[in-house]
## 1
Amino acid sequence: MRPLDPPARRALLGLAVLAAIGAVQVLFLIGVEVDRTLRHRAAIAELRVEVATLHAEAEDLRAIAERADDDAFREQLARRQGFVGPDESRVIVVHRDVP
């Protein structure tokens, strides 16, 4: 096999440099895609938790809506929110630590 002339060597060196740059670019793009995939999986997991929480909240609201005609139930809901009846007084108890 005879040695390559200088223009052929330069052409091969140029191709080798381009191949090396291409390999680095491919590795970088693979890294970017792996990172993107991991971030998307984490976001999907968070959204699944949020959807489950919203479904549970919707079930609670349906249960409340089903008992909307129950006066005692509505009164208890109002009392939990701090409402008092027209003939009642609100009493606030403040606990003080005595030294």
Note: The first helix runs from residue 6 to 66.
## 2
Amino acid sequence: MFYKDKRSNLLNQVICILILVCFVACNANYKPSFKQSITDSSLRSRVSRVIDAQLDNVKDYLDDDLKSSIEGASKSTGRMSGSEIVDMTLAESGGRDYLDFCYSVDLAQAKNDVDDVMDTARCLLPAEKYQELVELTEEVEREINLKGEEIARAIPLNQQAAFYKDLKTLVVRAIVLLTAGVVYACMPAVVFWGKISAACAISVGAGLVAISIMSLYEYFRFGTGEGQSFEDWFKGLLEVPKADFALTTAITAVAEAMGAGPVVTGIIICVFALYNIVDLARTMLKTYNFDA
């Protein structure tokens, strides 16, 4: 009897182990939400730094009552610090989600994909608007993969790798900026402190796009585009066979982000001005007949 019970227990243990192995194997590709990986300490530290760095770029475009709160809350420095704004945002209903989004956008400068940004945006956007963003992202990634070789063949062999890498980076960063603009435009009227981190996310995204544009500009200025004005280079680049899709997708995304409202447009133009490419931003709007 004892032997039979022992054998039964052993059989049960084996079955449990098999079930556990099957469960783990079936979920080996499971990827937890990026938001779940953000710790409180890293969130406070990173977003506080982002706000301190970007606040001067965005505060003039915020609502007057919010701007007054920022400038009048701290007598010692003349404005609230990033850590103070983070604390106020965390105390606001839904504020943590906007801090998560700002965190993901800032982290995007170390990566070359939109997954984390889209993951955090999902909690902030209406389902329909989020689905539109998902479809745009999938379209860009699909077309870039399909046309990558064609794009590369349109330029000299020794320039193909660098060109395509920079081009892909520009497209990805443009989508990040577009997402930041849409997130801000879709913010409920009751959100107050969360607007600051959302606006700073736009500023960071615009800076990343500006850096990518400058990278392409410098690359062509010392390569095939030497001696051309920026506007002439840009227009000429659009005529490169097969490369036009990727660039127009990126630039149209920026233009669409600009159309999300005066705050979004103002911040993007402000940041672009810091990189001396305001004329390019205006050219974008004119070239694509987009009225911001």
Note: The chain is about 70% helix and 0% strand.
